[in-house]
Write a structure and sequence with these properties.
single chain, 301 residues, alpha/beta, Metallo-beta-lactamase, Chain A, seven-stranded mixed beta sheet, 10 helices, 12 strands, binds zinc ion
Length: 301
C-alpha cells in the first residue's frame, strides 16, 4: 500500500494535475475545451471556463488560455495530436483569471498574447489570484501573471492564414470593463463571459444595462456558431439564458426599488426562483440581486 501511494505521489510530482481534457469540435475549424459548470475548486483545478482553438492554414488562434500553465500545456498537447500547428495568437476575452492564467505557457512557445488593456490595469503583477488561493500548488506550478503583448483599447483586426478575426472591445461596461468579442464574419462569434449557459452568470464586476446592450450587439451580428465563456450551447439558443436572467433580474429589482425595499431586505423579496435549479444559483443569485440593486438604485436617482 505504502509503495502504491508513494508511486502515485512521485507520479503526480512528475506529471502534475491531469485535467483529462477532451477536445470537442464545434465547427469545421474550431475545437473547444468546455469548462465545468462549477466554482473553482481544488478538484477541478480551476477548469471552469471554455478555451478554444481556431485552426487556420497559418496556425492556431486560441481564445482564452485557461486557468493554469498546466491546463494550457495539456490543451496544446491534445490539439497537436489532432492537427500539429503552431499557435500564432492567444486572445484573452476579459480580465477574470479563469480565462488567461495559461498565457505563460503560450508565451513560452512563441505565441503573441492579445487582451483588453483593463487586464493589465486591474491585476497586479504580484497579485495572489483567486486561482492560486484555491487550486493546489502542484496544479498551479509554473503559472505566472503574464500580461498581453498587445493591449486592445478599441478594436483590432488580425488575419491568420486566410481567416480574418475582428477583435472588438465594447464601449460600455458589460460583464467587465473592456470585454472583448472575437468575430469571424458570417461564421462564428466568441463572446467570452457576455454569454453564460448551463450555469448562473456573475454580475460582480459588470453592469446590467451595458450587458443587455452587449447582447443586442452580439445578436445583430451575422454568425452561425456562438462560443460562450461558460457553457456548451453554440446555436442561437446559446444566448437565451443570459438574456432571460438579466431581464428578469432587472425587472424584479426595479420593482423592489419602486416599492422602497431596502438593500438589506432585497434578497428576501426577490428570489428569481425559476432559475433555482441552474448550477451556481445558490452561490451567485443573491450576490447578483445585491449588485443589481446597487446599479439600478443609482439609475433611479
Ligand atoms: Zn468572467
Amino acid at each position: 500500500m505504502k509503495i502504491v501511494i508513494g508511486l502515485i505521489f512521485i507520479g503526480s510530482l512528475l506529471y502534475g494535475f491531469d485535467y483529462h481534457l477532451k477536445p470537442v469540435q464545434v465547427d469545421k475549424n474550431v475545437t473547444c475545451f468546455f469548462g465545468k459548470s462549477e466554482p473553482v475548486t481544488k478538484e477541478n483545478g480551476g477548469e471552469i471556463a471554455n478555451s478554444c482553438y481556431v485552426a487556420t492554414i497559418g496556425g492556431y488562434v486560441v481564445i482564452d488560455s485557461g486557468p493554469t500553465y498546466s491546463f494550457a500545456r495539456q490543451a496544446y498537447t491534445a490539439m497537436q495530436k489532432l492537427s500539429p500547428l503552431d499557435v500564432q495568437y492567444v486572445i484573452n476575452t476579459h480580465k477574470h483569471d479563469d480565462h488567461w492564467l495559461g498565457n505563460g505557457f503560450y508565451k513560452s512557445i512563441g505565441a503573441k498574447i492579445i487582451g483588453p488593456v483593463t487586464l493589465k490595469n486591474s491585476v497586479g503583477k504580484d497579485e495572489i489570484t483567486r486561482m492560486q488561493r484555491v487550486v493546489s500548488a502542484e496544479t498551479f506550478a509554473k503559472t505566472n501573471i503574464v500580461y498581453p503583448d498587445i493591449d486592445i483599447e478599441k478594436t483590432k483586426n488580425i488575419k491568420v492564414g486566410h481567416t480574418s478575426f475582428e477583435i472588438r472591445q465594447l464601449s460600455k461596461k458589460a460583464h467587465t470593463a473592456g470585454d472583448l468579442i472575437i468575430y469571424i464574419p458570417h461564421k462564428i462569434i466568441f463572446t467570452g463571459d457576455l454569454v453564460f449557459n448551463g450555469r448562473l452568470l456573475s454580475l460582480r464586476d459588470g453592469d446590467i444595462n451595458g450587458w443587455l446592450e452587449a447582447l443586442d450587439k452580439i445578436e445583430a451580428l451575422d454568425w452561425k456558431v456562438l462560443v460562450s465563456g461558460h457553457g456548451r450551447l453554440t446555436d442561437r439558443s446559446a444566448l437565451d439564458m443570459t438574456r432571460n436572467y438579466l431581464t428578469d433580474l432587472k425587472k424584479s429589482v426595479k420593482k423592489a426599488l419602486d416599492e422602497d425595499v431596502e438593500l438589506g431586505e432585497v434578497t428576501q423579496k426577490v428570489k428569481l426562483e425559476k432559475y433555482k435549479d441552474i448550477p451556481m444559483y445558490k452561490l451567485l443569485n443573491n450576490l447578483n440581486i445585491l449588485k443589481a440593486y446597487q446599479l439600478l438604485e443609482f439609475e433611479e436617482e
